[in-house]
């Protein structure tokens, strides 16, 4: 399969970049009328370059004039190999340095140096120029090949340069397509028949003809009608390739350089970004609210800086939050360039460590850990900083910069320090704290209420921040058999409601008294609850145990005494078919005050049914009577 590489030119104005591209490819990238008139490259131009059997390059020719550095930036974004051009007669100039700094901030890995206009200078002079550029490149983070002298005029050195480009491009790494699709737009135009066409370098992922895409910021929807890769019609757009997409459903005016075409739902625009900034020595210090131009992808927005710690001094680096005056789209690991508001010069670069920082705290924290090159480490740092809220798994590819193809692997490598719950990730320490809080709360509840079967679940939930987390923790503890859920209560598996010695004494007395009270029962006051605070707890405990029964709001009966009197009532109702209260009063010897609440209690149990003031046998009453009949038959036989 053919490999595609993007080469980006860089260098001072008039040093021969465009002439060199033409010498290499035959293509004049100075496209616009104004460019022709002024004789300089204002906007980005493109040319195809065949390098070897299966190696194709697209050259992005950027403008060199200082007014157009922002266009240079839009073009330099997504470049695999830099072609730095220095004119033999002039040597290193201001934009040579600025472009070089930008290429370094954008982390371009490989570069080729061309000393152009070699026909205009003596070899001795060229050696001086090479020595000067060599000094600067010695401290560069980019891997540069040795300088090649060329002349676009005579053609000298052009073939050597082509060979050097082929060699360097052959070493450029490919990018995985198992990732989210993103294409920062650098040009937009209308083509008769194709509609709105956008171009750019596909940064990651892929889309196919017919796919739905979105344009951000602004959430416009469109469909891919046609794809071109490096100028050829294709089925699929792939990462690291110059790409043109014809988009159906969009007007030319809806979209501009700086927009991003994305496919997956997880992409969204942002108005704040946490970054690690590196400042050039000639920059001013970055203090709270310093206003800068932030270039990322093909976008340029104004931003205000909030340093993570102290001010960031020139020549040093530090964490900061950038508050953006307009939204843009970015991802962990994206590289940006910072230019001063006025005068407009490049003063630093930055790497995104959180595209969607939380609103609070307002000052970013812990950015160094978030910037770690170790995927598991930065994933853990993010999840731990999110506390009880956790982080949505769907957000990880963008917030931690994990290609979707390796997401599972990354989750596995962090599994000792984060847990996966309800499609979110939680820090193990957050989970451990929530588990402790739940266990402690339930244990303490048992100590305070030893007679109750357990703690109300709702109360247990409140000891943990977040209902989802609370439920997750409870379910986990149940699975481990540490706690038991019963209805709306939760208890330790080991908990058994029981009486203390003192309560047992109270209980003994209560049971004796309730038995003696027989069909009259006793209220809490009559049982002496005002004198003894534990009375209520103990008698409610008996109710749960089944040895006592509460009738109405406040009257307790001995279970057997209640059974006896309700049986008497039931049999009398059965005998007469329908019995009035007066009749039942006579039968039981109970006054209205005792009888009526008893009848109402029997009604609620369906033992009896109310008809006017009288009672008939209810469905549950029928069953109880049948059971009684069987019992007496058994005892007779
Ligand atoms: P750019 O601004 O870096 O793109 O520079 P251009 O490619 O537009 O070239 C600027 C001027 O230098 C033009 O007038 C070119 O004809 C001239 N030029 C470019 N390359 C050479 C070269 O190798 N030799 C000579 N003598 N002139 C050149
Ligand atoms: Mg040019």
Secondary structure tally, helices: 19
Q: What is the count of β-strands?
A: 34
Q: Unreliable segments (pLDDT under 50, ≥5 consecutive)?
A: none
Kindly report how far apart the N and C termini lie: 97 Å
Strand content range: 25-35%
Helix/sheet category: alpha+beta
- Average pLDDT number: 90
The hetero molecules present are:
guanosine-5'-diphosphate, magnesium ion
- Summarize the amount of helix as a percent range: 25-40%
**Biggest sheet statistics:** 8 strands, antiparallel
Over the alpha carbons, how many angstroms does the gyration radius reach? 41 Å
- Based on Cα principal axes, name the global outline: elongated
How would you explain this protein's 3D organization?
This protein is of the alpha+beta class. It contains 19 helices and 34 strands. The strands form eight sheets. Strands 8, 9, 10, 12, 13, 14, 16 and 17 form an eight-stranded antiparallel sheet that branches. Strands 1, 2, 3, 4, 5, 6 and 7 form a seven-stranded mixed sheet that branches. A six-stranded antiparallel β-barrel has the order 18-21-20-19-22-23. Helix 11 (428-448) crosses helix 13 (467-479) and helix 14 (501-517) crosses helix 15 (534-545). The longest helix is centred in the C-terminal third of the chain and has 21 residues, at 428-448. The radius of gyration is 41 Å and the shape is elongated. Bound molecules: guanosine-5'-diphosphate (GDP) and magnesium ion (MG). Guanosine-5'-diphosphate (GDP) binds next to helix 1.
